[in-house]
Design goal:
Elements (H helix, E strand, L loop, with lengths): L13 H10 L4 E4 L4 H9 L5 E3 L1 H7 L10 H15 L3 E4 L7 H14 L3 E5 L18 H14 L4 E6 L1 H20 L3 E4 L5 H10 L6 E3 L11 H6 L4 E4 L2 H20 L12 H8 L1 H11 L14
Parallel strand pairs: 1-8, 2-3, 3-4, 4-5, 5-6, 7-8
Length: 308
């Protein structure tokens, strides 16, 4: 159904719907969706929440993930993913785009764009992917102030605090940071770049009762675990942040190589979504029917009379 008039489009705030998914129990599987088409495909595959990765957004713009995009640029992605899918979206808020007041502006902007949740991290700019080396950490009390600002500004947004502390401060440092952020008003914690099942289990053991998010990114420090394995380790959410963009980018790379090599795309037809499949995904017929139902000829009755 078109998001323009979707009969199933919820009028309830996305943050409330995201919170209900967390409180329902089990582990919430949240695939990364780097644009509106990916969001539709993820929804049609049966997922109930989606993720917008800063790395995927910046890479799709031809930029590195160094915290250089703006709130409004992120909102462009939030709007298309949230509107296309109708699902609550967890958004990567990087370091909050500044200090406390900037974080408050980010929260309200993301809510207005349709986001259901956000995570902010305790790095300093220029921030890095959490699985890279030599990250510079913010003072934990400065980060706690950002978390408090986000909690104060939100109307419904679910606030997740990410800590990158394990790499440089060990488990004790990461847990201390997480406890401080929860006291500041976070709803959940995202411990980044843990690199063994033992680390995941220990963090969960030391944060009892706190909803935890696991990051199952490829080519990073974390070994491959399934959603069920993360659940068994004590986690309530898992994201696959850049996976959809990695697969799409590799396919596009192979397409351009084939066109260059073969003089056309004729040898890639079996790798393509057909026109029928595309139109079904984007509900082309639904839009046509909607247009036909409202764009009808109105015949004027009588001619207006001149005055004076």
């Amino acid at each position: 159904m078109s998001y323009l008039v979707g009969a199933d489009a919820s009028t309830r705030p996305a943050g409330e719907r995201f919170r209900e998914l967390i409180e329902a129990g089990g582990i919430l599987r949240i695939p990364g969706t780097h644009n509106g088409m990916a969001a539709l495909q993820a929804r049609d595959a049966g997922f109930s929440a989606l993720y917008l990765s800063g790395a995927a957004m910046t890479a799709s713009m031809g930029l590195p993930d160094l915290g250089i995009i703006t709130v409004e640029e992120v909102c462009f992605f939030v709007r298309q993913v949230a509107r296309a899918s109708g699902l609550p979206v967890l958004v990567d808020g990087d370091t909050g785009y500044g200090e406390a007041l900037n974080v408050m502006n980010m929260v309200r902007s993301f809510e207005d764009a349709g986001a259901g949740a956000v995570h902010i991290e305790d790095q300093l700019l220029p921030k890095k992917c959490g699985h890279l080396n030599d990250k510079r950490m913010a003072d934990p009390h400065d980060m706690a102030a950002k978390v408090a600002a986000a909690a104060r500004a939100r109307r419904h947004l679910y606030v997740i605090a990410r800590t990158d502390g394990a790499a440089s401060e060990g488990m004790d440092g990461a847990v201390a940071r997480a406890q401080l952020y929860m006291a500041a008003g976070a709803d959940a914690i995202f411990p980044e770049a843990l690199h063994s099942a033992e680390m995941f289990r220990e963090f969960a053991r030391r944060m009892p009762g706190v909803p935890l998010l696991a990051n199952m990114t490829e080519f990073g420090r974390t070994p491959f675990f399934t959603a069920d394995e993360f659940e068994a380790m004590g986690y309530r959410m898992v994201i696959w942040p850049v996976t959809s963009m990695r697969v799409a980018a590799k396919a596009t790379e192979e397409l351009y190589a084939a066109i260059r090599r073969d003089g056309g795309a004729q040898n890639m037809i079996d790798r393509m979504q057909t026109r029928t499949e595309l139109y079904a995904t984007i509900d082309y017929a639904g839009y046509e029917a909607l247009d036909a139902s409202i764009v009808a000829t109105v015949v004027p009755h009588g001619m207006p009379q001149r005055e004076g």
